[in-house]
Amino acid sequence: MRLISIQPRPEIAPWIHHFWVFETGAGLPEVDARIVVPNGRPKLVVPWRNALIARGAGATQRSDEGEVVLIGVWDQPSIISSPNSFTVTIGVEFRPNGLSRFFEADLDGVFQRIVPLDQVLGATGSRMMKRVNAADTLNEAVQMIQEFLVERLHAVGRYRRSLVDEAIATMGQHGYSVEINNLASALGCSRRHLQDVFRQQIGLTPKRLQSVLAFEKLYRKFSKDKDARLLRDEALDLWFDQAHFIRSFQQFTGHSPGRFAELDNEFGRIFYRS
Predict the structure, then answer these.
(1) Nearest in space to 18 (alpha carbons), one of 83, 86, 91
(2) Sequence spans of domains, the chain
(3) How crowded is residue 211: how many other Cβ atoms within 10 Å of its Cβ?
(4) Quick check: 38 pLDDT over 90?
(5) pLDDT at 218
(6) What is the assigned CATH class of domain 2-156?
(7) What separation in angstroms does the CA of 250 have from each of 69, 185, 198?
(8) pLDDT tens, residue by residue, 178-193
(9) CB 188: neighbour CB atoms within 10 A?
(10) Residue 217 to residues 34, 40, 158, 175, 223: CA-CA distances in angstroms?
């Protein structure tokens, strides 16, 4: 398995966390757990060579070769698989507040969903999918995606710093442990208004997003050393006690910290080494 990082164009770079290409010679290995945990970042994914199958949130969905899909923010784990053949997947991971810069629709409609691009953008999405599917080379497909995102950024025209941008920055400054009532007060709005804006521009409430981002911060460290004890020790700064943390960890991964540390989840961890 190999993950290649792509440099996004300057116009779109502020809203993208990671632009990548994933390659493997014979599909995703069945011996690997292949668990993708929630990280608070929506995605645009293209199974450019080979299909991908995602199982999570009580459903199984197949994305065929050449399809372009939007993946909203999730707060549950998913398990990814593919047919046993050469696999190339192109992915754009947006910042939590990034996808709304490229798509005008309310993003609560893609929360915990995988949606083909043509269902979101109609004919525009269909044309994009056909162009990527017809690309002769990987580099050509990547450039098409870059150009598409630049076009979408200018079409939507949301350049100014928003309430959601300020809220997420404040969450990060407080280690993703700020009280939401205090956050709303600091931003000069009501809690209800903040929740409504978050659902529209991200897909879930600020409280739930903050919980996902706090977990992602810990999981990033965990992915590098797989030390469950260290993970629990650091979690006490963010959760009330160890019992609350273990319940959250099980919800986000499907396993206890100790059991998860024993799993071979190379596919899930590879995205945290960049």
Answers:
(1) 91
(2) 2-156
(3) 22
(4) yes
(5) 84
(6) mainly beta
(7) 27, 32, 25
(8) 999 999 999 999 999 9
(9) 9
(10) 20, 10, 28, 9, 10
